[in-house]
User: Fold RimJ/RimL family protein N-acetyltransferase from Nonomuraea polychroma.
Amino acid sequence: MRSAWVGERVRLRAVEPEDWEAFHAFEEDSDAVRNGWRLHPPSSTAYAKKWAAAEAEREKDLDEFRLVIATRDGNAPVGSVNTHGIAREHGTFAYGISVGTPHQRKGYAGDAIVILLRYMFFERRFQKAEAWVYASNDASLGLHRRLGFVEEGRRRRSHYHAGRYDDEVLFGMTIEEFTERYA
Assistant:
């Protein structure tokens, strides 16, 4: 028996209450947080515990969700992936991904994205995935290009962080492009 949620390096799973500690630690790396979205003021241990408990109890949605990226063998959290921007009428969705700094450059993000796309394309019948990447995030730009995403556009100076404006680069992949590369 093989789980659709297990790849070569990672498994995607639901958030568990005890995951609070890993995610709280990931928030300590300001540069990594900025690369993913935006920097927030520090949160307390109590808040992190409450967040993880609430995520663990959140009602499941088949199309819009957040999953933990965990190591395949040890099941330790290394990051998260979430879907958003669901447009069922067009068959499109967007996703975000974040891997904690100590776990980057180990193939976890690429493996997680392939697992996610396989589910969204072949189980939920979507036809296109989109991802927005900040132009200063060289690692994520390279990752999406290596995975076969096509650069579709750029929103100039649309994100402000670390005292400067940054462009957002739109990447897209169709089900046909995915199938040709990963089926």
